[in-house]
Design a protein that fits this description.
It is built from two helices and four strands. The protein is α+β, with helices and mostly antiparallel strands and 78 residues long. Strand 1 and strand 2 form a beta hairpin.
Length: 78
């Protein structure tokens, strides 16, 4: 997640992460220097919950992309 922030050259942007060993899944978020880890571990038997968590991440990424596009348009208008 730190590498993604450095590659994106946007240190304040939220970065979401997924870690898995194939049997257990874990989710987290890094915003600025604050890491938030979901306290729940998901197992492969809970595919519905894993897919729901992944869907949530995609929704968050879409919101971030849309807000960046709006900011870009506003900057170009000034």
């Amino acid at each position: 997640m730190l590498a993604a922030k450095k590659l994106n050259e946007q240190p304040e942007q939220e970065v979401f992460g997924i870690a898995s060993n194939g049997g257990v899944w874990q989710f987290g978020k890094l915003k600025a220097n604050v890491f938030t880890r979901n306290q729940t571990f998901y197992t492969i038997e809970e595919l519905d919950k894993i897919f729901a968590a992944i869907n949530y991440l995609f929704q968050q990424w879409e919101l971030l992309l849309n807000s960046e596009q709006v900011e870009s348009v506003l900057k170009s208008c000034t």
